[in-house]
Design goal:
The chain is mainly alpha-helical. The protein has a single domain, classed as ABC transporter involved in vitamin B12 uptake, BtuC, CATH 1.10.3470. 77% of the residues lie in helices and 0% in strands. The longest helix has 27 residues, at 202-228. The radius of gyration is 20 Å and the shape is globular.
Length: 325
């Protein structure tokens, strides 16, 4: 355990020093990896316990659009707009989650309900084009370097914000993984009826992780929008974003703290590689490859890349007393 923490400290030191040595392009990619890693980690808080949501694009979209709209039309600082967007996402998760959990909508039925939610939010953004810009997108008003507006032309500022956000996501993941409610959630994922029979409040536990996951996803979406300074319903909400989140978390390994971040590294590398190799000549290639890789991962690596590496390390023979001498 000491070696693991030492390795984490070294990694953290490298990440903190990265802005001083990395060119702007790779800094841009690093920010995206951290932001998406945070969002994927937020989804895995639910997914690892069997609560498969295909609607996290809705929470991300609400989190991204609310502070941007408040800033453009009411001059409300993102320091207020972001918490409001997170609160609205939590309310949306409650409105959807409570009846689903109350009436025991589980499995693929729950996944379909959340999938519909993601599409409803995206279509609502498109329909309100006079306010949101619709499918043409929405650009927050730029004011240059400003803490009040949470706008920084220098990438190093957003890199540190993304790094703190990512570390916070890992801390929440660890708290849930090591908390007293972990056993209850595992029991619920195995058999809800049996869990309720031994006194576990199934509704409360499922709502708890759902609301936490939605809040973190909305927060990630808000910072994503502040960084890119351009919002489009196709890139921050809708089915495509939701499926990307599910793909990355599963392929990276949603049962390990760093699994979703590995998934983020994979998706960003894939997107950039395809963009450099094909430009606009192969639009949609990423989603096609996502689907193929997801099928292969579910068949051959059900616990993701990190889970597979952990299994290999556990199977590796350790030196016995004779060999140690």
């Amino acid at each position: 355990m000491t070696a693991r923490y030492a390795a984490f400290v070294v990694l953290l030191g490298i990440l903190v020093a990265l802005p001083r040595v990395v060119p702007p392009y790779f800094m841009h990619l690093s920010i995206q990896i951290l932001l998406w890693g945070f969002i994927y980690t937020a989804w895995s808080i639910m997914g690892r316990f069997g609560f498969v949501s295909l609607g996290h694009g809705a929470f991300m979209g609400v989190g991204a659009y609310v502070p941007a709209l408040l800033w453009n039309y009411q001059a409300v600082t993102p320091w207020i707009g972001i918490p409001l967007g997170v609160a609205l996402s939590v309310l949306l998760a409650l409105v959807i989650g409570y009846p689903c959990f109350r009436f025991k909508v589980v499995g693929h039925y729950f996944a379909l309900v959340t999938l519909a939610l993601s599409q409803v939010v995206m279509l609502s953004i498109v329909a309100a084009r006079d306010v949101t810009g619709g499918s043409l997108g929405f650009t927050p008003k730029a004011v240059g370097h400003s803490w009040y507006a949470l706008q920084f032309p220098e990438k190093s500022y957003f890199y540190m914000i993304a790094l703190v956000l990512w570390l916070g996501g890992l801390a929440v993941w660890r708290a849930i993984d090591g908390g007293i409610g972990r056993e209850a959630l595992d029991a619920i994922s195995e058999d809800e009826e049996a869990a309720a029979a031994i006194g576990i409040d199934v509704m409360r536990e499922k709502l708890r992780v759902t609301l936490i996951s939605a809040a973190l996803t909305a927060l990630g979406g808000a910072i994503y929008g502040q960084y890119f300074m351009y919002l489009n319903p196709e890139t921050v909400s809708g089915i495509g974003v939701s499926l990307q989140i599910v793909f990355a978390a599963i392929v990276g390994g949603m049962y390990a703290a760093l699994g979703p971040t590995v998934g983020s590294l994979l998706t960003i590398s894939l997107n950039e590689g395809l963009r450099v190799a094909f430009g606009v000549n192969f639009i949609g290639a990423a989603n096609t490859i996502y689907g193929i890789l997801l099928i292969l991962c579910i068949i051959f690596m059900p616990r993701g890349i990190v889970g597979m590496l952990q299994a290999i390390s556990l199977r590796r023979p350790r030196p016995g007393p004779a060999a140690a001498e």
